């Protein structure tokens, strides 16, 4: 019984983190240019995950791109720097990479 309770609490915690990260993405206007499963202005989050799968240090690299922006990686439209803290960028990167 104890294992079931612990598993249920863990599942709720993960669900809360995922929801919190999606809310963070919305509050930082990430969802204006990106969606989970379709291209808007920028690539979908799932396309980002597919392109980065297996890369060493991908979470830190993605957090850097979220915070500092990037160019010429997904076409000619650059991603501008975002007004996020290092911790927010890391949270967003972890969330994006969880969307397999």
What does this protein structure show overall?
By secondary structure, the chain is mainly alpha-helical. Helices cover 57% and strands 0% of the residues. The protein is built from four helices and no strands. It has helices at 2-27, 45-52, 58-68, 86-97. The protein is globular, with a radius of gyration of 15 Å. The chain starts with a helix and ends with a helix.
Short recap of the structure:
This protein is mostly helical and 100 residues long.
- Report on the biggest sheet: none
Structural class by SSE content: mainly alpha
From the alpha-carbon coordinates, what is the Rg to the nearest angstrom?
15 Å
Helix content: 55-70%
Strand content is under 5%
**Low-confidence region ranges:** 4-17
Mean pLDDT: 85
Topology as a string of helices (H) and strands (E): HHHH
Distance between the termini: 31 Å
SSE layout:
Layout: H1 2-27, H2 45-52, H3 58-68, H4 86-97
Which key phrases capture this entry?
100 residues; mainly alpha; 4 helices
């Amino acid at each position: 019984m104890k294992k079931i309770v612990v598993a249920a609490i863990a599942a709720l915690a993960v669900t809360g983190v995922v929801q919190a990260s999606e809310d963070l993405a919305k509050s930082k206007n990430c969802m204006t240019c990106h969606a989970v499963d379709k291209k808007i202005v920028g690539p979908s989050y799932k396309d980002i995950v597919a392109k980065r799968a297996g890369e060493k240090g991908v979470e830190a690299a993605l957090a850097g791109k979220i915070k500092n922006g990037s160019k010429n990686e997904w076409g000619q439209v650059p991603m501008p720097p975002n007004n996020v803290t290092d911790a927010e960028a890391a949270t967003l990167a972890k969330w994006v990479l969880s969307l397999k």
